[in-house]
Design goal:
The protein is mainly α. It has one domain. The chain is built from 17 helices and no strands.
Length: 437
């Protein structure tokens, strides 16, 4: 077991491995716990839909078949790769500084315009013609964080004393991201700095699965409950620690030290239950998929996927009536398929990757769509990691593509790839400034 955890050949962050694990977690973890009798406070009794279960199994098998298909490696060999070039360390400080300052200027502007609270943003922010631009530029501070960690680990590996300076910059930027994200109640904002650190560390410094799994566990069972408590503090009352009553009904009276010990045990048990409930209630995507396939609606035949074409259309400040992203109506979608309560006006619900394929093309869409998704994921992994031998630019770009695609497995397909195209354009420009001539 220990040798497996230290196996450098196993790539946990390859898109094929990561996507398969994430797919299992979001679709099957809750049903498995339900079958063994584990109750989850925030979810009703789970009744596993057999049709949804088999359709989802078809989806993951088609994805794996597409990922392992030799088409992707063949195509990657035919495509030239400009990302093998290493970075110019002399340019590092000013490129990092510029992106860092610009990124935080964007975040401070969001605060001033009322866009910090993503659960209840101001109308002034939502109606701003530059609204979508903020979403793209919000990545800048994270990109600066990734650059700092790449320089830090690279220089540390080479024994260059400058790694200490980059260490201060990297961990300082990391702490700033956490301080910014915690009051926002956004789980994704909390997760992103950790994910960037883990991916960069994995490819640049050390492939240590043990540290990665510990970090993933901490994210799941600390950041999920933090986000849950931040959004709805009243939930904590459901896990209130009750002091034991001392009276005639107790056969064995408890003294003060015993009461204190019982309270500690109660606190630990309730906290663990709250953490597990917070995590499991967030990964119940099979119920969403079940609601989609049992919802009487005609197939869309690609209509929701046409949004990818909006990538090449003028920005909103030039095209005032530009159609809005499907993500904007995610709360409305949740009500439409019946997975949200009538009074829930903030929770966003995505159809999941297999749900979106099903809504457009039915069962055929799941089979072919997931097969193509597997091919695309393998092309991206081979192009940015395998072919570049995990170069600095390859790792930088791959880190953000990984986040966008893995997170996107819960969401609409089109907005994810629209955002990906824009993000790649931004990262390409940064690569041109950092690479050696």
């Amino acid at each position: 077991m220990i040798s497996f955890l230290k196996n450098r050949k196993f790539d946990f962050f390859s898109l094929g491995v990561s996507a398969t694990i994430f797919y299992f977690v979001i679709f099957y973890l809750v049903p498995i716990f339900s079958l063994v009798g584990v109750s989850i406070k925030f979810l009703p009794a789970i009744d596993v839909d057999n049709k949804a279960l088999w359709y989802s199994i078809l989806g993951i098998f088609c994805f794996i078949f597409g990922y392992l298909n030799p088409i992707a490696p063949y195509l990657v060999k035919k495509i030239s790769n400009p990302f093998k070039k290493e970075w110019d360390y002399k340019k590092g400080f000013w490129v990092f500084g510029f992106i860092f300052i610009l990124g935080w200027a964007v975040k401070l502007t969001k605060i001033l315009m009322g866009g910090y609270d993503y659960l209840n943003p101001s109308q002034r922010f939502l109606q701003n013609p530059f609204y979508s631009l903020f979403g793209n530029l919000n990545w800048l501070s994270y990109i600066a964080l990734a650059i700092a960690f790449i320089f830090y680990f690279n220089l540390r590996q080479k024994g260059d004393k400058l790694y200490k300076i980059w260490g201060v910059l990297a961990w300082g930027a990391f702490l700033l991201e956490l301080l910014y994200s915690l009051p926002s109640c956004s789980r994704m904002s909390m997760f992103t700095p950790f994910i960037i650190y883990l991916i960069v560390r994995w490819y640049v410094w050390e492939r240590n699965l043990k540290i990665t799994l510990i970090a993933a566990g901490l994210m799941a069972f600390i950041l999920f409950p933090l986000g849950n408590a931040c959004r709805t503090p009243a939930i904590l009352s459901l896990y209130q620690i009750n002091k034991p009553q001392i009276g005639e009904q107790q056969k064995i009276p408890l003294n003060k030290p015993q009461i204190g010990e019982q309270q500690k045990i109660s606190f630990i048990v309730n906290s663990a239950k709250f953490a597990s409930d917070s995590f499991l209630s967030r990964v119940n995507e099979l119920s969403v998929f079940s609601a989609i396939i049992n919802n009487s609606q005609s197939l869309e035949y690609g209509s929701s996927l046409r949004e990818v074409l909006l990538t090449f259309s003028p920005p909103r400040f030039l095209w005032e009536n530009k159609p809005k992203s499907a993500n904007i109506s995610s709360n409305e979608f949740g009500h439409k398929i019946g997975v949200l309560t009538p009074d829930d006006k903030t929770t966003g619900v995505g159809p999941t990757v297999i749900g979106d394929w099903y809504m457009n093309f039915g069962l055929f869409g799941i089979a072919v769509g997931m097969f193509l998704t597997g091919i695309i994921f393998k092309i991206i992994y081979n192009y940015f990691i395998v072919k570049t031998e995990a170069s600095s630019s390859g790792v930088l770009i791959y880190s953000f593509v990984w986040i966008q695609l893995i997170k996107g497995m819960e969401d609409w397909i089109a907005p994810i790839y629209v955002g990906l195209f824009r993000l790649l354009a931004m990262l390409l420009i940064i690569h041109l400034f950092l690479k050696k001539k």
